[in-house]
Amino acid sequence: MSSRMRLPVVCAALLAILGGAAADPNLPVDWWLTSKVKSALILSPQLDGFDVNVDTTEGRVTLFGRVPTRQDKQAATTVALQVPGVRAVDNQLQVVPSPEVTRTGPSDARIRQLLEDRYRDTPFVRGVRVAAVDDGVVRLEGTTRSAGARARALAIARTVPGVRRITGIVDAPEHFARDEAALVDDTPKRGRIADETITTRVKMALYTSVHVPGTQVSVDTDDGRVTLFGKVPSEASRDRALQLARQVEGVTTVRNLLQIVPVGAAQQVAEDDERIREELEANLGSDPRFDDIAFDVADRVVRLTGTAPNPWVRLDAVRIARGAPGVMNVVQQIELKPEAGRPGSGS
């Protein structure tokens, strides 16, 4: 049995912030918000630089990593919530006090040289300049073509040895622009694969695995380095998630921080196919993005077929189907069919 899939409309508030021509439900709002939150955390004067992973699903941001104080943890939530479009924050940051240390490392001149070399080797951040370095505090200036490029420029600076903080103004579009979609493409190409593309591919692999509760796993990518965080029911699920992430093209390393939390007996009660189908029909609203996608259910497995205009719409369809109670797996058979005039359509 096959049913026409009608998936829920993305929150109108999220689309409203994009404004004008950019207010398009086919555009990947979530990873755009992830880039904005990462930049806000790095630049915030309330926070001393720390290693934090960020993932976003339907405007809900998850923070994972370590901070030295409770004040830092609270500040991270505040900073993330101030990013337009963020609906909620799940702050999973751990408070791990760090001892006071005397600053050692490269001189300011060496820091500047290292950072300028890295920017020169990264094409899409070449509009960013190192204005000054003072006692390990880097001040940046310039412009980037996208929020993702700005986040990458800041992340590069954060990883340079000796850098304590990052300040300055790096301009980027405040609204998601159509040409920014060209930075993320699901088709194979030569050269570096964008982090946003890698995250999308890893999530797709997790959502379509029978061995991993994919919607409970968060994914963050930084220069090809993937971090997995969240909860899985077993060691086997944890290992399988690691294996799937490693198999994705463009992934250089995988840091597996998934926690094993066994599922309670009540949650293991099987749902028959008809109940799953009824659940899908009851909870999936009308959304024009999914007009060309259909589903059927057999043995608690949802099969998705049809076409989608881009990888993000396809990923949303899989994620929503996998999140239905009782679904054990999703078989993804949705073909990409870009609409005329959209990025990647060739017109």
Topology, element by element:
Elements: E1 3-4, H1 12-16, H2 29-43, E2 52-57, E3 60-67, H3 70-81, E4 88-91, E5 94-95, H4 108-120, E6 128-134, E7 137-143, H5 147-158, E8 165-171, H6 195-207, E9 217-222, E10 225-232, H7 235-246, E11 253-256, E12 259-260, H8 273-283, E13 293-298, E14 301-308, H9 311-322, E15 329-336
Parallel strand pairs: 3-4, 3-5, 7-8, 10-11, 10-12, 14-15
Antiparallel strand pairs: 1-13, 2-3, 6-7, 9-10, 13-14
Helix pairs in contact: 2-5, 6-9
What does this structure look like?
The chain is α/β, with parallel strands linked by helices and 347 residues long. The chain folds into two domains: 3-16 and 187-336, no CATH class; 20-98 and 106-171, no CATH class. It is 30% helix and 24% strand. It is built from nine helices and 15 strands. The protein has helices at 12-16, 29-43, 70-81, 108-120, 147-158, 195-207, 235-246, 273-283, 311-322; strands spanning 3-4, 52-57, 60-67, 88-91, 94-95, 128-134, 137-143, 165-171, 217-222, 225-232, 253-256, 259-260, 293-298, 301-308, 329-336. The strands form four sheets. Strands 1-13-14-15 form a four-stranded mixed beta sheet. Strands 2, 3, 4 and 5 form a four-stranded mixed beta sheet that branches. Helix 2 packs parallel to helix 5 (147-158) and helix 6 packs parallel to helix 9 (311-322). The longest helix has 15 residues, at 29-43. The protein is globular, with a radius of gyration of 21 Å. Residues 4-23, 184-190 and 265-270 have low confidence and may be disordered.
Short description:
The protein is an alpha/beta fold. The chain is built from nine helices and 15 strands. It has two domains: 164 residues, no CATH class; 145 residues, no CATH class.
